[in-house]
Amino acid sequence: MVALSLTILTCFKVAFVFSSGFNKEYIDYILKNPWQRNEKITTQSSDGMKNSFNCNISPISKQRPTSVHALRPQDIEVIAALGDSLTAANGAKATNILGLIEECRGVSWSMGSENPDIRKSITLPNILKKFNPNLYGASTGSGSYTSNKAGFNMGQPGKTSNAMMSQAKELILKMKATPEINFNEAWKLVTIFVGGNDLCLACENTKLTAENYLNKIRKVLDHLKLNLPKTLVNLVVSLDVTVIDDLSGTTCRNMQKTFCECGLSSGFRSSLINMTRTIQKGTEDLINSGIYDTSDDFTVVAQPFMKNMGVPKKVLIQKKINALGKIQ
């Protein structure tokens, strides 16, 4: 009976892993290593931030605003997202390598509301729920994008900009089939964050270029504008994957070589940085062109906070904490 249970558990793990959406090399590495290494994964605490929500909260509007340009946080009724593993929150609660495969959507920065208490989980939905407790669509637990806990989180691990159109179409169909929301009248916030995999695979796939990325994003935005009424798109400008070279550790480095070798390639570094900058500037130029500001029921905002993202280091974090302590 014990042997049977172990066999079933192993089969479950293998099936779970191979349904995760990652490439075969990444999966093979993870499968081989959890039982060889019991290396613990730790997270950085943000307790100081969790106790400092000081925004003024106004009552929910009695009538829905007629223009997207007049939206307030409390006017957002539906939240959704498109993206890759950073939206699916792969490994967000991991304590070992195998845990990196779990899609922890309930704690996703852009979609998680597994624990709606903002003091314990700082996420975009939890912030918005301070203004509108009836916000619909946030993820409430782990699982794939088709699970009943995913909400409108369509992010899938390993995906590039090529997959955003299919995610957008699936999102629209899912919203239309959801009786709990008013598809035509409810104001929606859709976050799009993708690009890391385009960059990580660019040295191996010649079709993954800055030009193709920008074309794919524009087509997705055009499709949303035509088919998703009352929507504010929160478009996060792509990050720079070359910063992973600043990370250290044998296991960490081996995994980086598996899922983002292009980010470590010294011979491709200059080209990858140029591609990154072109994507970032092109994304901002597209949004700043005003082509998505021509109607009252749709617009796009470019979020630049990931452009100059660096690797968090314990020494630097401690210095910042000490500095904040002196200021207070």
Keywords:
328 residues, alpha/beta, four-stranded parallel β-sheet, 12 helices, 4 strands, 7% strand
Secondary structure: helix percent: 25-40%
> Strand portion, in percent?
5-15%
Structural class: alpha/beta
**Contiguous runs where pLDDT drops below 50 for at least 5 residues:** 1-21, 34-39, 324-328
- Largest sheet, order of strands side by side? 1-2-3-4
Which word captures the global form? globular
How would you sum up the major sheet?
4 strands, parallel
Q: What is the residue-averaged pLDDT?
A: 84
Radius of gyration, rounded?
21 Å
Annotation field: number of helices:
12
Number of strands: 4
| Run of helices and strands | HHHEHHHEHHEHHHEH
Distance between the termini: 60 Å
